[in-house]
Fold these 3 entries.
Entry 1:
Amino acid sequence: MGYPTTIDGILGIWTALALMLFVYSYPLFKENQLFRFAEHFFIGLSLAIAAIISIQTTIRLAITPLMAGKIYYIIPILLGFMMYFILHRDYRWISRYPIAILVGSSIGLGMRGTIIPNILSQIIATITPPKAGAVALSWFNFVYIGIGTILAVMYFLLTFEHRGPLLYPTRLGRWIIMIGLGAYYGNTVLFRMAMLSGRAQFLLQVLGLVPF
Amino acid sequence: MAEVVRRELVYILTAIVVIIMIVDFFFAVPAVSAVAGELRTWATIISTMALALGAVNIIRVHSRNVRRRTPGVWYHSAWLIFIFAFVMLLGMLDINNPASNPIYKWIFDYSYVSLGQTWYAITGFYIASAAYRAFRARNVDAALLLIAGIFVMLMNAPIGEVIWVQIPVIGRWFNDVGQVPAMRTFLIVAAFGLLAFGFRTLLGRERGFYGEVAGG
């Protein structure tokens, strides 16, 4: 993709650049009217796009089957409208019915979907040793992950106070968690800086200092 | 009677839906599977319609600002409402394919996408100071956090290898092995937490999401 040549393309990238600078005027300077302009613009725009997607999905999932003869699809549509009673203090209780279906299905799906991948698979992966003939480092990693996972899980034993025989295992567990969080945080820092450098690159591209 | 309709029936409905979802997965009864499939679609429809509820609520709040001419705020609120109405109108002209409208497409491409990236990247300004606070070795916990974080960051930065050729190797170990026990623990513990939460909901003991705490 080269530098835009059409009027709307050129206007577009300069608008995008201006909005970007308005937003970054807050961390680089202080809160100001230009920042608030861009902030409210983005909120209004996001809301409109979310509302349009919401209408599209409702048409596709509910209105089209209803028109095709599935009369009972009037029920989820009515339940969807019942959600709006949450805005009225006296009739807020009506919104609990659609919430019941939403929460019930989410929790039901969550409960049935969590046991295999998040409990069983994790335990199997932890206790599966390296293949025969594996190098010493693989065995070290296996032992570290196995013991580390047990210690870190012990840290979350909240039924007992962490003292006596639990004092040192839970402390080691906390250290294992700290190593994990450190590595995770290091990746997060890098990712966010990469995003920011992407924006800096966009600034240079619009100014014509680096190619698009 | 009112109490039954307002509360008890709601708890029973939630429990029935949870049970249908679980029975569908573990017993695969065709009739139950059909009901579970419909309920999933219904939940999607309800959540999609609820998405617009957020928009309605924000517009309500900003309309109040405009009506009351709240100093320093009302013109921004008016701007927000105008943009919302304008983009909605453009989108509604062809609801099945809003991007067919060139003005909508232009706004989406050059404002929405670009601002989305900008907002996401704004955390880059704060993450450096947050990293400074997090990565101070005040005790053993913080020191371990610091060591793992520094090695992972230097592993990805070209300067890491220049400082010491083993830095990427150690960083890769922290990334591929060092963090595995913690991440695995989070998955296991969160899964048990979800199961406990699910059973509490099933028994009607978890009620915060009905808005009862907020009153009404």
Entry 2:
Amino acid sequence: MEEKGRKKYTTATSYILSGMKKHPFLTFGALVLTVIASLFTALPFIIVGQAIDVLRLEGFSPLFVSQTLLIVIVGVIYLAMNFTAGASWAAVITGWERDARQELFESLQDHSMAFHDQVDSKKILSISMQDINWIRISLNPGLRMIIGSFSAYGITAIVLWSISQILGIIMIAGFPIYLYFALRYAQIVDPVRRQRAISMENLTSVSQEVFRGIEVVRAFGAEEREKQKFNQTSLNYANSVEQEGRLSAFFFPQLILILITTGTFLYGSTLLVAGSISVGGLIQILSLLIAIDAQNFMLPRSLLLLRGGFVNAQRIIDLLNWQDPLIDSDSTDTQLDFTGNIVFENVSFRYPNSNGNGSYALSNLSFQIPGGSKVALIGGPGGGKSSVLKLLLRLYDPTEGTIKVGDTDLRNVPSALVRKTVGLVEQDVFLFKMSIRNNIAYGCENASEDAIIEAAKRAQAHDFIMETPNGYDTVIGERGMTLSGGQRQRLAIARALLQNPSILLLDDSTSAIDARTEYLMRRALNEAMEYRTSITVTQRLRTLIESDLIMIIDKGQLIAFGPHEELLKESIQYRQIFDQLPETRKMLETVPLAGGVA
Amino acid sequence: MSAGRPGYSNKKRSRPIGLLLRRMGGYFSGFRKIIISGAILAIFASLIDAISPLVLSQGIDISLGALDAGNAIIFLAILYLGFRLISFISGSFYTRVIARAQAGFVNKVQQDVYSHLVDADLSFHKGEQSGNVTSRVTSDTEALNTGVQVLMDIAGQLVLLVVTFIVLWMTSPIVALTALITVPVVIVMSALYGTVGQRTMLATQRAYGMVSGQIAENLSGIQIAKAFNREKETSKQLLALNNEAYKHNFRLTLFFTFLFPTVGAMTVFIVAAVLFVGAGLATGAAAVLTIGELFLGVILVQRFMFPLLIVSLQGSQVQASLAAMDRISDVIEAEPTLTEAEDAVPLLPSSDGITFEDVTFSYIKDTEVLSDVSFRIEPGTTIAIVGATGAGKTTVAALINRFYDPDQGRILIGKQDISKVTFQSLHGAVALVSQEPYLFDGTVLDNIKYGNPDASDDEIKELCRVTNACEFIETLPEAYDSVVLEGGKNLSSGQRQMITIVRTLAANPRILILDEATSKLDAYSESLVQKAQEKLFADRTTVVIAHRLSTIANADRILVFDKGKLVEQGSHSELLEAKGIYESLYQTYYAHQGVDELDEKILTKQDLVAETTVS
């Protein structure tokens, strides 16, 4: 699929800069404008110094007045420059944010289910919202302010150099020392700030899960235990807040700037006394330094932001570069026959997990389902039923062995094609917050109105749909618009019918429904199973009896496989299911177990 | 939803500012000394900051005038250095000290709010999304914290402003007055911020919320999207929202790009104005201003614009934090209607069996869910509760657990009224497995141990073996140590239900209540669970709410509920013979669990009893 076209990022820097590379001219313009804007920040102070010299020499002369006016004009240009620079930055970086979010989502969506099973969706959500947001902030205003600060410092150094080389040298020598300390500071503060963010996340997850499960907490009388647990988490958070305050309080790089300002003041004054500079010169020097002082107050914060941006970028790259065990095929073989037999050959399957190994969900499964047959799949929870369905949808590939449909190994069929020809009605039906029509047409967007209604009718859903406030336009999940389990399931059947798959997988484990719903459901299921191979996970005894084949899977192994009558004779496990109800016991009595009880 | 409680939506504050501030102050009571010393440090730092340029201006004047300038300048340089160092040190100490107060403050608020929330009525939690409740503990306390920080900052900035103005005034009243031109400009700017800025900000937040909601929904439906090849469409949907968010965010950035440089430009204009006015005063025969003082004016006047702007912009921050305090107050002031009696005694170990005496209950006023229900469950017996949807079955279970108190009547365990026993002992004796299996973050083992933290791992494993839960647990990637993700998305609903059942059995309760506890299990696993339960809890009082015929038929006695009333009771065969409501229920709900084919004829007969699922 598109997977191959997607570029991989190797370093955080290349990821962060990718947005800027996309608009090289705009980015270059933004950079140049930012530097020029700093020049116009410094210019008023230079003019003030000159004006004061003029004032001392000529008094309130026309030259002085024109210099005052010049300051105003510089102010206007400053505004224009800054605004243009800011707008260019905004265009580049805000656009990057949008593209990065879109790209991240699309590529995570293409990752196979192995990824989504392992990674908490809350984490993905917070990375795609917060982390990308932080990178944006680290670039704009973060990087922009760093560039602004540096160029202001540079301009000041040049001006001071032009007045006195020694002052210039003080500035130039001070810079690396200042930068070194600023980076050191950022390095110290950064981890505690991160620690603080992590303890906040803990606090959120600890309280959220308790509020969600408050009934369970009550039922077990665990309130005090939960409060203690929370208090500990809250205390950890408080500690990290305090630690951050303690470590970030002493912004020692500031001392360097204080020393530079004082030194310059002292040296400048002696120059003034000696008459080698004018009073205007001294005023220029001092006001520029004070301005830098104010501006550089923000520098460590910007450095922190930028540093943080790299960490966030690394988190994103790790998600993007995740190694998918499912390698999609790009074969365009048209000889595929999904109406053929489904064959499992020594299939073993282990859910991919973070530490590499775990136990098998399916082990050494071999069976053959003739095309067009109705198969009922039963077995205990976690026995492997849903794993079989997931493998047939190619949400995963088997760890060992092969699955063939009509003699073709599923590994050689593009997953998109598999999912087009294999339909699914899942156990906990997932419906989207959109109209009933769009939910039914989820699998084929271009379906005609008639086709949608036809599918709904066959799934026995049309009648209740017409009773909803807006019929097919009713939006599911909006105010009070909830559907019962049976209704949801019939919508899912309609959805699958419209898709018209060659193989239909049904996970039908609902219970607790009344006879009418049950009746409708059976009719819907019968419609759905017509003219195709179907595999149904079920608990309905009636469905078992009506199936062509019954498969019992437990502990990942095939326990029994065959038609109803045969299993009734041969399988103790199968008989046990019918042993639950008084009426069905009669049925067991008429069919004795072959070969005696083991 | 929850009666009498103000809603949590974007409503206005309902309490006076004074009260909210006092309440905030209350949380600071333990840190008064820290706060005062912090405030002193902050004011001191601002004060020093405001007067240190004075040294520079003196230096300029001395360099220009005095003959023996050298020593004076060295003295002034040292003075300046001293001032800056003092300001640096006291500023740093302020940050450090205040962080400690803030940490303690937030911790106190959080614990207080959390403890109120955990004890709040269940009806409160039912009426609120868990995310909303969580934000009381997290984002609201954070907003309070920010508010406190902002208040301190504002105080510091105001001191800086006032002292700067005084210094300016002493230098030259006219220059000081010139500096006041900033005030109307700042007012215009903060008005812009309050209207256009806030509106844009809100629109941006909303647009981001849509993006985030869409991603969340797409992620939870990812398997379906894949199963139906819908990846392209979901991407397209997201792109539309993403573009919308981009548009708003770009506007917002532009707004700030306009705001700050404009203020910067205004500062430049005011420097020009002060230079112009000051020059008039510093020249001519009657010069009242020295060059140093003119320089001072130019430096100080720049100190006006940004602090003033920051103070006015942060007003909204303070507003937000007062609103947070208001929401927190809602939580703290809400008296739980359900509290432990002051003279509550522990439930005696000998108390067993359940009695309902004329119990009437309603979740919402005037809509009775149970009316006048009386029954007695003998110790050690198993009873089944049956009835159509909405008959009040789950409510009976909730009342036995005292999640709610009945409006009338009382509930006894043994001879003790449950409203007069301690929660701890009640919940220790009674255990409930509810319809929706809920698991906590943690390992499978942690979850099972939830009901009985003291159980050993071996005991738990033995229990899992007896209930047959071990079979699926052992096939999980890390068996008992497998981590439950997001409430159990990595488990099937049957597996989740198995864990909740074992969790409850592990708690070893005297009275067991199973509310559709096995609805998500297949018939075979259910029978195994039942066998285990019979073995382990053979002679314990058990209440089963069930849909499966096999469970009901095996109970000692069946209570039949209809529209909140107890209408019939007896054994399965007795009730069938009586040909009353149970018999119709049996035909509607249970008979078809067998193997008979359904047809239209049976159905029309049963439509009289069957509750339609469409409401």
Entry 3:
Amino acid sequence: MTEQVAKFMPPEVEAFLGVPLFEGITEDAVRALALAAEEAVYPKGELIFREGELGDRFCVIGDGEVEVVKGLGTPNEVVLARLGSKEFFGEMSLIEGQPRSASIRAARTSIIYVLTNQAIARFSRFWPEFHSTIIFNIAAALSRRLREIDRAVASAGQAPVG
Amino acid sequence: MAEMAQAGAAPLALDQTELFTGMRPEVLQRIAERMTGGAYREGVMVAKEGTPGDCLFVIGQGSVEIVKGLGTPEEKRLNIVGAGGFFGEMSLIENRERSASVRTVEPSIIYALRPQDLQEVAREEPHQCRMILVNIARGLSRRLREMDELFAARSY
């Protein structure tokens, strides 16, 4: 890439480099993915996703922090996790094609990069092997979270099944 | 063997299992030739928490329980996986030790799949083998969704 092209690149390109989700993908492909993303800014407290809605996109956090909330607005509201810069959310709907399992709320003013399912599908046609890499990285992240919650549930002395 | 007979239905064909959903039969046949299978009695440990995991397992018949702290006072059953399901994928994906032990709850037929079983087929049929990865991610996502529900329900 020439210096001129590098300068022309929008800020999301820089934001996407160094995101663990894209580990194992060439810089060129990460840049292409960044170009397919749309930037959105959410003020503190604003809802990004609502639990139960159909999901057709997933998001990478540029600069910001979000809360993963279950039962938002109900007496059972609980914050499951906090996610920061270079982390991602919305991947479960992407993988499963199911409604959102939790709401996402901006914990502070946050710059979010949105990738629609169509953008991901298009990327997968051009770079099928790197699409696999992303799915693998998502699976690894899901597995880590599952390992943590399994441990938490087991040590809390709860018996979820049976 | 009497126990096996009581288990009822014949073992599932691999194309009826969650791990291989959406794959072409001829590709699956090549993978099946490399996999090893075994019949287990009730109460047999198939995978042990804390040990390295070099394969994942597909249940053709029967069912298993996923248990943390097996044999300790803190023993806790996390899940039950039945015929057509799979387990042991977390160690492979994360390249870490087994996060829990797995024990049969009835006579079961279980197939083991090692990454090297897929190598040759993956070179020739990358798209087909990618579906295994998608199916693994889907299974992890579903379980995480269930655990999140459970965790949230008990956290208030």
